[in-house]
Amino acid sequence: MDQMVVWLNKQDLPKELQESTDNFGAIIPQVVVCGTLTRRAVESTWMTASNAHPERIGSELRAMVQAPPGYNIVGADVDSQELWIASVIGDSRHAAMHGCTPLGWMTLSGNKSEGTDMHSVTAKAVGISRDHAKVINYARIYGAGQNFAERLLKQFNPTMSETEARSKARKMFDMTKGKKFYYLTREYVHEFGDHPFTKWQAMELAKAHGKKVSEMFETSKWVGGTESAMFNRLEEIANSDRPTTPFLGTGIWCNTVIEDCCWFFKLPHKDGPSRNVGNPLAKDYLTKFSDNVLAGDTESAEQVLSIARKLSYWRNNRARIMDQMVVWLNKQDLPMELHESTDNFGAIIPQVVVCGTLTRRAVESTWMTASNAHPERIGSELRAMVQAPPGYNIVGADVDSQELWIASVIGDSRHAAMHGCTPLGWMTLSGNKTEGTDMHSVTAKAVGISRDHAKVINYARIYGAGQNFAERLLKQFNPTMSETEARSKARKMFDMTKGKKFYYLTREYVHEFGDHPFTKWQAMELAKAHGKKVSEMFETSKWVGGTESAMFNRLEEIANSDRPTTPFLEGRLSRALEPKSMSDDRFLPTKVNWVVQSGAADFLHLMLVCMRWIMGDNIRFCLSFHDEVRYLVKEKYRYKAALALHTTNLLTRSFCAHRLGLHDLPQSVAFFSSVEVDMVLRKESKQDCVTPSNPHGLKRGYGIDNGEAVDIYTAIEKAGGVSPRWYQFDDSDRDVKSNKKEARDVGNPPR
């Protein structure tokens, strides 16, 4: 269903088709031309399409592609293509004559009906079906070994014993591939004779003379099989200094000059050097083209890359967006002021898993992962396409540095019970991006990386990522960085931020060994020398000397407690991860991450309850995006809703601070930097959302003006916040028509 179809206009068709009432179009092939090591093309639908089968729904797919009237589709299958290639390679080296090897003869002259073709001969000799022999034959030609053949035989016939499968596989390989023998080099032939040695004999002889097999013997050869000549030639090509195909083209060699014109380099995979990159146009590499780390050498290549960048977001999200559940409302279900409108009004039913993660975060595949509008992403204006009906506004805000503040205030509360008493706490409250004193700028400057990269690594570290992960990220950000440099920068960053881990002796051992810190290695050696476990001689380890040490010590203390709970609403960790269920620290990073992110879930729940308490039925919750909330409110109450959000932030942060034993709140975090009052669901009210699929933006394309970013002072002024009863509403404006007394009680907080 995700195929890209281009329907042609009448004027683009041949004249003989322009009078037809049918529609004509073409499917744009989504093919990776050299998608494998073997330079084969890769495509996920048509190249893997099944042939029509009476018991397979949809297997007639290929037959649904038709030629227009007056045209035909012409094609052919190459008979036994790869089998012929393999056999003729063997023939060419053996006697330079077609069919001079058993495999070559069977390929050219063998007949299925007479039982003389390759698969029938193998099946008859080993005692299996021809279909099974065919599968194993091709697997062997492609490099599969005897063990693989044994597994296939067991898979084809589960009742076959392992001994029988091994016997049949050995018989098949002896007959086809032959046996491998080693031949002495010239200098040893006179001493030991010019005869073949088995692999075991070659190893024993080399061992007896203190040599390697490769020093005494030439390259091994297959002997006595129908395919021996073919395998000898294939291995000879594969083991040459510069393997090339016998026909046209060249193999791919990293850091090697090909035919004095081309250089191939291994692209670094984000998950480490052991992984191979499948597609250089994949999502992870598109930014490298924007940064000119990767580039094409022609205008057409640059255009391909530009199109790939633009299509990336839409290709990945189109199906989810098109599958949204929309409910269109009838006229009688709308407010009176909308009855005369000619527009249609509806709502998208949220497909949200409320507690979809370990941290109790909500999970939803489209809106919670929606991209912000980007000038090079088709479809990235998605959020701005959700509009409030006439007479209503969408009001919302982003919680400024929510999880960073939660982590820092947890550390502050345990260190000295004062806001900003730790380096991390001070940077969170008073750090300034423009002055370079915020957390990310400080880290970037100290380590020598960009602020954006430092920001990614900082959050990853707070969520429990270790030094190895930071090394991989640094290599991913800058592929030219050496492993040594990446390791050095990561170590420097962790020493400066997280600090170093030290162990402290329990009281009973302090008198004997002194009250000083021990490194992990020293603690293990001391415990080992006394026949104890580290946990028996030492208290819980602590981080020391880093800007975030106090925070990590407190987070790990919570994570390792008997019943880990969030510090705000005392939400419990899954019992499967509680210490009584886990005897080691394998999941400590996960539990540390849980403390912060589950604390953020508490923060959201407190905000939702507080907004309901203040606004009552005069506001409708739309959606939350982790640290962002959006509400639908009548236009005349938009500024009251904005002030209510500012007040909610104040009350929620005050509650969280009070639960941690802090009885004040710095003004820098008391209120939102701004509350967005808008007509659409875009992230920033001043953003016009110009994208390739929305080239005119919201202003010119839809007539939607910019919204407002309302700070606390503007909200107080416009909402009548100087009045002690600013939060009260008229009963006539309530959406709920019954049970008005209960609604008034909810909407009016006690003075």
What is the count of DSSP helices, taking H or I runs of 4+ residues? 28
Low-confidence stretches: 247-253, 732-747
Output the radius of gyration. Answer: 35 Å
The percentage of residues in β strands lies in 5-15%
Distance between the termini: 59 Å
Main β-sheet description: 5 strands, antiparallel
Instruction: Provide mean pLDDT, rounded.
Output: 86
Helical content class: 40-55%
Assign the structural class, choosing from mainly alpha, mainly beta, alpha/beta, alpha+beta, or little secondary structure: alpha+beta
Q: State the total count of DSSP E strands.
A: 15
Instruction: Indicate the overall shape.
Output: globular
What is the topology, as strand order, of the major beta sheet? 12-13-9-14-15
Explain the overall architecture:
- This protein is an alpha+beta fold.
- Among the domains are: 1-75, no CATH class; 367-400 and 599-747, no CATH class; 403-598, no CATH class.
- 41% of the residues lie in helices and 8% in strands.
- It has 28 helices and 15 strands.
- It has a five-stranded antiparallel β-sheet. A two-stranded antiparallel sheet has the order 1-2.
- Strand 5 (256-258) and strand 6 (262-264) form a beta hairpin.
- It is globular and about 105 Å long.
- The two termini are 59 Å apart.
- Mean pLDDT is 86; it is low at 247-253 and 732-747.
